Amino acid sequence: MALLSLNEQVLIKEIGGGFLAFCSQSGETIVLNPITYKILKLLNKPLDSSTILAILHTEFEDQTEQLSVFLDSAINELIGRGFIIKEVAIIVK
Predict the structure, then answer these.
(1) What's the rounded Cα separation, in Å, for the pair 70 and 36?
(2) Percent of the chain residues past pLDDT 90, beyond the cut
(3) Max Cα-Cα span within the chain
(4) Which of 83, 88, 75, 90 is nearest to 3 (CA)?
(5) Which of 26, 52, 54, 58 is closest to 37 using CA atoms?
(6) Whole-angstrom Cα distance, residue 21 to residue 39?
(7) Is 75 exposed, middle or buried (0-12, 13-18, 19+ CB in 10 A)?
């Protein structure tokens, strides 16, 4: 299972009704939509994508059909840009 977490070097801000994320590691700033903002806010602690999806389904009920595809795309984009860190959890039995 892969756990996702917010890169420690990322700052998230709500400014004038909009959302921004800044990664000091890369110097990149991105504009966030409300769903992506919520994803990054959730990742202040490590979560797997199915847990994130379940939370998003409760908060964005009007967009449930698109959430799964959007979540996969957003996570891949944010990992690629260094905003999210993907950790592989090792399960010991």
Answers:
(1) 9
(2) 80
(3) 49
(4) 88
(5) 52
(6) 12
(7) buried
Asked if residue 9 lies in contact with residue 24, where contact means CB atoms within 8 angstroms, the answer is yes
Identify which of 42, 35, 43 has the alpha carbon closest to the alpha carbon of residue 19: 35
Long-range Cβ contacts of 64-72 (<8 Å, 24+ apart): 67/35, 70/35, 71/39
- 9, 69, 75: which is closest to 38 by C-alpha? 75
DSSP letter, residue 83: S
Alpha helices in 1-93 (DSSP H): 34-42, 49-59, 64-80
Sign for the CA dihedral angle at 36, 40, 45, 46 comes to: positive
Q: Would you state the pLDDT for residue 23?
A: 96
Structure tokens at 89: 């959890």
What's the Rg (C-alpha) of the chain? 13
- Segment holding 5, helix H or strand E: strand 2-6
DSSP assignment, residue 23? E
Please give the residue that has the higher pLDDT: either 50 or 66. Answer: 50
